[in-house]
Amino acid sequence: MLERVWYENRRILVGVVKNLLPDFPWAEDILQEAFAKVVAARRPFRNEREAFNFIRKTVVNTSLEELRRSARRRRLGPVVAEWTRQSLQTGTVEDPLAQMIREEEREEKRSLINEIRDSLAALPVEQREAIEIVFKRRNAVLATCKRRGLAYSTVRSRMLVAVDRIRKDLRRRGVFMNHGKE
Known about the structure:
With 182 residues, the protein is an all-alpha fold. It contains 8 helices and no strands. The chain is flat.
């Protein structure tokens, strides 16, 4: 049934890929890869509509995966060229993929820090101070609490509420994800 549904709907599937991918020969490769994934899945289907939906989803996902791979290759191209130039000059240069990953991590960290700063700025003063006491660790937490005349449990409670508010604010803005935990 699966192969029949594939071939009966091939024109539709080609259209889906052509809408997502700019180059038709590339689209043919994607269709072949998607077909292999569909066959390898060996899923039972109740009817042809269910089989077609699975096939279409596989074609779309395979196309998007290839677009992402292509974007990484385009970003990596200049890095590889620079790496080749430097390695010819010096003989010792860092792997270009590691270099690109490190730069992406730095950019992600900078972006996250800016988002956290915005969330911190929106907190009430006492919660922001609690965060500073706990995370900056200018002094030992207990000594700081004593000096400010605050109970440790109060500072801890304010800190937990503040962290929760930051997390909710970041989640609302789509910056922080739970990774499956609710």
